[in-house]
Amino acid sequence: MAEEVLSQNEIDALLSALSTGEMDADELKKEEKEKKVRVYDFKRALRFSKDQIRSLSRVHENFARLLTTYFSGQLRNYVQISVASVDQVPYEEFIRSIPKMTILNTFSVPPLDGRILLEINPNIAYAMLDRVLGGRGASYNKVENLTEIETTIMSQLFEKALENLQEAWSSIVDVDPMLEEFEVNPQFLQMVSPNETVVVISLNTTIGESSGMINICIPHVVLEPIIPKLSVHYWMQNQQHKESDPEEFKAISQSIRQAELEASAVLGEADIAIEEFLRLQKEDVIQLDQSIQSPLRLFIDEEPKFLVQPGKVNRKMAVQILEEIQGGERNDDE
Q: Which residues form the Flagellar motor switch protein FliN-like C-terminal domain (predicted)?
């Protein structure tokens, strides 16, 4: 046990307090004998380290970006989703924190055991439904009176959204999310015991002018087999393995070689005023900034890469590469 070292001034002050009676030596001995107790709530057991919580946060930041892209395409509207918080709480506390009537989707994630819960605030869910049905994304709440058609549309929308979870989790484990249950009353869902620790990832969600929360509830039993992978050490090792994998490098190289690029040779450019542009007539001449004796620049996806000279090959316009442009080099006529 580490001992605290007092300065000379502190020792003098302590002796002075004892001699004047301001401090009792017996009370000091009594305090030393008393055991220091830290309060621990067994109903709120912390079963995940801060390192593991940070790893889960990183995974679901990627998931939030994937959801943003997915819902933007599906709803054709402004969508912004970001991670607000990642907490570990008892399951009972999570159920009490969400609305009494809300949109609940229960998913299994084989090969992992247990189920995860996706809770969507009604404001967000109905804004999505309104957009899918051709509306402007108006938000209103009538969870108690969901029709069969509305239930089916919502189920399909969120079931496809969870396919992005497979990609987000791929760095840790390969899962195959499957929708098992659609519910609106949290009291009818009892995935785990009330005191079971769950991780709750809250996502800030904005769709058009509507905003709300999407909560992902993951019980400890689901994450237990992959807890060793939720560490910075594992992530670093995994990243180094990926970087040094020759097969993966070869596959990426082959894919890059097949990518198409746009190549364009620029004869020259000119700047004119709008007034001059409006007065242009047939047979007017616009003088370019490029000399006829100077080589042309060949652009690859709008980036200058080569100096070339024009010509013909088999009666088709072509250019011959003269030299490579290094570090944004520009020709002397500019």
A: 255-325
Shared-domain flag, residues 97 and 209: yes
Query: Along the 334 residues of the chain, how does pLDDT read in single tens digits?
Result: 444 555 666 666 667 766 766 666 666 555 555 556 656 555 555 677 888 888 888 889 999 999 999 888 888 888 899 999 898 888 888 888 888 888 888 988 888 888 899 998 888 888 888 888 887 767 666 666 778 888 888 888 888 888 888 888 888 888 888 888 888 888 787 788 888 888 999 999 988 888 888 999 998 888 888 887 777 655 555 555 555 567 777 888 888 888 888 888 888 888 888 888 888 888 888 888 888 788 888 888 878 888 888 888 888 888 888 888 876 444 444 4
Per the structure, the complete domain to which residue 175 belongs is given by 50-245
- Distance separating alpha carbons of residues 183 and 101, to the nearest angstrom: 9
**Looking at the structure, do residues 229 and 299 belong to the same domain, yes or no?**
no
Q: DSSP letters along 24-70, please? A: -HHHHHHHHHSPP-----GGG---S-HHHHHHHHHHHHHHHHHHHHH
Question: 74: domain CATH number?
Answer: 3.40.1550.10
Pairing label, strands 296-300, 263-266: antiparallel
Q: Quick check: is 116 in a domain?
A: yes
Q: State the Cα–Cα distance between residues 70 and 191, nearest whole angstrom.
A: 28
Per-residue b or e along 210-236, where b marks 16 or more CB atoms closer than 10 Å to that residue's CB: bebbbbbbbbbbbbeebeebbeeeebe
> Tokens 């944004």 label which residue?
328
